[in-house]
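Weekly sync, protein design subgroup
Attendees: M.S., D.O., the rotation student, P.L. (late)

Item 1: inverse folding check
M.S. brought a backbone from last month's batch and wanted to see whether the design step gives back something sensible before we order anything. D.O. pointed out we never logged the input encoding, so this time it goes straight into the notes. Structure tokens as presented (412 positions):
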């Protein structure tokens, strides 16, 4: 595999530390268990924050993707949003375990989430330029698998270096949760340390118009892309399906640790061990899924993965045994990677390479324009029924609806 393909995959290794440590297993748990007034309120507050972040991403991502196509500045924009993610993440260090810091925490995490997702628009748009068509599935799957490896290793460092030792290293104050807050600093450094190779190995086109011209061309391109949708039925159906199942996947991933902490009383260290297990199984699934996808097709891979996630997710909501929760959670992880990586590959196969940024902007839009809906419905259900189970049940409906719509997509 070419050097630039490895460099491209390496960016997944770098930036996956953010959703793994911040959005899911450590900071999310810290927020609901130590910053928010109580776990139910914390889950609802986190849901509204994710909803607002999703709405912002949905509005900005297609426009920025089209601008990047017109101006050939995918690399520069990727660098900008990667640094913004790191800076906002580092700011979480100043969030103390008290209710007064809940709003600053949500603002910082929301900003980091928006920057992270916008960066992936430009990262994903590079995929067609780093691998031939017949190897897109395995390269995308390898990148997703390396992302799980990166998240796993960062989680392991968090656990073994910062959270488990007693007393904590570097004079960190456990009573002030400094050992937990320091994980945000680790993630920020991790992203900067490992995220740069793609910026060197995958250059932009040599000829680039002025920024103002690129903006005008980009906005015109996104309008043209939207006008093309009625004449691109396969792409339109795929993006419509992705509106719902990606919202379900993102919500499930974002709230899994919060659910485990509130429902089963798991503390941060136990959540981390669960996260390590989940990343191991997800990484194995992503690596295997890439080869399977090239053999069976992207659509079949996504559909099979969604069906498995729905069935296992139903079991996770019904079980009351922590041991069974661990077993089912490990099984769930196997299908996360293939569902997400195969979706990215399907988009890369369907979109014209010269318009990849614009189409991946719509790809991000399809995953985020309703991105506020899952967290918002979860927050409303959690509040209305005073139950985390009721909130998480919303996710299964979104996954099911997306899978039904994907059945109408006839593509490889």
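Designed sequence read out in the meeting:
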């Amino acid at each position: 595999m070419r050097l630039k393909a490895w460099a491209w995959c390496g960016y997944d290794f770098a930036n996956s530390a953010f959703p793994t440590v911040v959005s899911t297993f450590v900071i999310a748990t810290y927020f609901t268990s130590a910053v928010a007034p109580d776990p139910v309120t914390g889950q609802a507050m986190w849901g509204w924050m994710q909803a607002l972040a999703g709405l912002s991403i949905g509005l900005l991502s297609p426009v920025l993707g089209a601008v990047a196509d017109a101006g050939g500045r995918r690399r520069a924009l990727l660098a900008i949003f990667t640094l913004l993610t790191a800076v906002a993440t580092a700011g979480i260090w100043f969030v103390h375990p008290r209710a007064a810091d809940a709003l600053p925490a949500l603002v910082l995490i929301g900003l980091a989430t928006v920057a992270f997702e916008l960066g992936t628009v430009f990262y994903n748009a590079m995929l067609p330029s780093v691998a031939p068509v017949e190897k897109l599935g395995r390269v995308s799957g390898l990148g997703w698998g390396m992302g799980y490896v990166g998240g796993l290793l960062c989680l392991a460092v968090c656990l073994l270096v910062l959270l488990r030792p007693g007393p904590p290293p570097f004079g960190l104050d456990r009573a002030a949760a400094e050992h937990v807050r320091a994980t945000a600093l680790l993630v920020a450094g991790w992203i900067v340390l490992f995220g740069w190779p793609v910026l060197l190995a995958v250059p932009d086109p040599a000829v680039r118009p002025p920024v103002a011209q690129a903006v005008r061309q980009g906005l015109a391109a996104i309008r043209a892309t939207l006008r093309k949708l009625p004449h691109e039925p396969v792409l339109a159906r795929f993006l419509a399906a992705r509106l719902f199942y990606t919202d379900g996947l993102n919500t499930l991933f974002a709230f899994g640790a919060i659910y485990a902490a509130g429902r089963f009383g798991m503390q941060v260290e136990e959540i981390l061990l669960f996260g390590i297990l989940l990343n191991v199984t997800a990484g194995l699934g992503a690596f295997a899924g890439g080869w399977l996808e090239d053999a069976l097709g992207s659509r079949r891979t996504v559909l099979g993965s969604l069906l498995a996630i729905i069935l296992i997710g139903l079991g996770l909501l019904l079980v009351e045994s922590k041991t069974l929760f661990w077993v089912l959670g490990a099984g769930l992880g196997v299908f996360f990677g293939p569902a997400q990586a195969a979706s990215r590959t399907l988009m890369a196969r369907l979109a014209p390479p010269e318009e990849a940024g614009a189409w991946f902007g719509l790809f991000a839009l399809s995953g985020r324009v309703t991105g506020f809906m899952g967290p918002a419905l979860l927050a409303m259900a959690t509040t209305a029924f005073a139950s985390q189970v009721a909130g998480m049940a919303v996710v299964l409906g979104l996954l099911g609806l997306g899978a039904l719509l994907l059945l109408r997509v006839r593509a490889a």
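Discussion: The chain has a mean pLDDT of 82. The domain at 3-199+207-406 is CATH 1.20.1250.20 (Growth Hormone; Chain: A;).
Action: P.L. to compare against the previous round before Friday.
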